[in-house]
Amino acid sequence: MWELFKYIKWNGTTSLKSEEYYFSMLDDNGITFICLADETDGNSRRMAFSFLNDLQKTFFDSFTPNDIEAARAYDMDEF
C-alpha cells in the first residue's frame, strides 16, 4: 500500500492500474483520498473519482483546518 504514495500527484489526481483493479487517488494539500475499483466496465475510474470528490467534500465539510492539523492517529476514524 505504501508504494502507492510515490505515485500521488500532490494537489491533484492520478489513477494506477494493477491487474484488473484501479487505484484512484485524489490529494488536497496533503490529505489523500484513495479508492480501489475493479475494471468491470468503462465507467469504473469515472465513478471512483466521483466518489472521491464527494468524499473530499464531506470530509472538509466535517472538519475544520484546525481539526485536521491537530488530529492524532485514529482521531477521525469515525468519519
Structural commentary:
Strands 1-2-3 form a three-stranded antiparallel beta sheet, with helices on one face. The protein has helices spanning 44-62, 65-70; strands at 13-18, 21-28, 31-38. The longest helix is centred in the last third of the chain and has 19 residues, at 44-62. The protein is globular. It starts with 12 loop residues before the first strand and ends in a 9-residue tail after the last helix. The relative contact order is 0.15. By secondary structure, it is α+β, with helices and mostly antiparallel strands.
SSE topology string: EEEHH
Number of helices: 2
Computed over alpha carbons, the radius of gyration is 13 Å
Number of strands: 3
Average predicted confidence as pLDDT: 85
Helix content, binned percent = 25-40%
Shape: globular
Strands in their spatial order, largest beta sheet: 1-2-3
**Uncertain segments of ≥5 residues (pLDDT<50)?**
none
Portion in strands = 25-35%
Distance between the termini: 21 Å
What is the SS-derived class? alpha+beta
Give the topology, please.
Blueprint: E1 13-18, E2 21-28, E3 31-38, H1 44-62, H2 65-70
Antiparallel strand pairs: 1-2, 2-3
